[in-house]
């Protein structure tokens, strides 16, 4: 008995279990991240995962989406898009100014509401002087002459209507747009969120 | 803590791998055999990868379960088969990391853990009068949202919905819809729309009226 335990202690089997277990965790993480990426649809810099939370997914897909988006609504209930890059593919940053222009009638189709928020890259809101990190469809957004609506994304208040301004964090940031009870064109992929354009002074 | 792990995942991983390399190197250098370690590591690696992938949804939803039952959503632990409504939506101050810190201030969250092993539960919904709400039921083994009660699926009128584990035999009262859960446990997440700060008390009053009782 004593020699058996001694063999276990000196054979390297314990180290083998630890090393193999950590390698298994890292491998599973890499595989699931790759699968989650393959399930992500990116259009105009906006990424969404239409199959999240659906029943009947395969083992790999359901695990990958549980890891990437835990306990998130199914797409028919709430569509979520995230963006970390502008139209030119450059990372969104708080020291730059951007505009998100919805053409006339092209705000996210929904049966409940939509909202747009700016967070740090992990997904947490960052306190700012304006006291908010969201623009939504309850505020009467001011339209341009042609009926389009501009959302201004920058750290300091822009010229123009304050309700169309989304205050952004100082460093690199992430945008999240959500449409609850998304319209049929969202669910079937026909609706495209416009790209975020940098505004150069 | 989770946030720190997320932020420093790469350096943490590098340090762990460096320790492993040192362990292997010192075994070789000291003349101890490396064969048992290598064979064990490969076997555990292969089986472990499959196991991690298979059990990942359980780990995730199990994390929600432990958090709900042990810590709650801010109002203390939430016992099984009870619901807790968060009084306020997450705001810029929520960066301390609420369980449901998805950065939205459009909805009030309601959370709870269903244990159907002693029989079905009845979900009571107040008259929402057109207000958007949803109650999501998530299977802990697959993390699939197997059923919804709410504006999209059942409307906004007051109602009662029986939730039973698969295999339960019995009768529900006439007219009461029956939702069958794939297993005996389920994560419940409710969301009640809140238009703005002035609307918050009304939304919270409704969120508090979402409740469970035994059938």
Please tell me about this protein's structure.
- The complex is a heterodimer of chains A (201) and B (215).
- Chain A is an alpha+beta fold and 201 residues long.
- Chain A has a domain at 74-199: Domain of unknown function DUF1214, C-terminal domain (Jelly Rolls, Sandwich).
- Helices cover 25% and strands 26% of the residues of chain A.
- Chain A is built from four helices and ten strands; from the N terminus they run H-H-E-E-H-E-E-E-E-E-E-E-H-E.
- In chain A, a hairpin with a 2-residue loop joins strand 1 and strand 2.
- In chain A, helix 2 crosses helix 3.
- Chain B has a five-stranded antiparallel β-sheet with strand order 1-2-8-4-5.
- The longest helix of chain B has 36 residues, at 35-70.
- Chain B is elongated, with a radius of gyration of 23 Å.
- The two termini of chain B are 40 Å apart.
- The chains are: A alpha+beta (201), B alpha+beta (215).
- At the A-B interface, helix 2, helix 3, strand 5 and strand 9 of A face helix 1, helix 2, helix 3, strand 4 and strand 5 of B.
The main pleated sheet of chain B reads as: 5 strands, antiparallel
Distance between the termini of chain B: 40 Å
Helix vs. strand class of chain A? alpha+beta
What's the overall average pLDDT of chain A, rounded? 91
Helical run tally of chain A: 4
Order the strands across the largest sheet of chain A as they lie in space. Answer: 3-9-5-6
Number of strands of chain A: 10
What's the β-strand tally of chain B?
9
Q: What is the helical fraction of chain A, as a range of percent?
A: 10-25%
Largest sheet of chain A: 4 strands, antiparallel
Q: Class by helix and strand content of chain B?
A: alpha+beta
Largest interface: A-B, 61 and 69 residues
Q: How much beta of chain A, percentage-wise?
A: 25-35%
Strand order of the largest sheet of chain B: 1-2-8-4-5
Mean pLDDT of chain B: 89
Q: Strand-and-helix sequence of chain A, N→C?
A: HHEEHEEEEEEEHE
Low-confidence stretches of chain A: none
Q: What is the CATH-assigned architecture of the domain at 74-199 in chain A? A: Sandwich
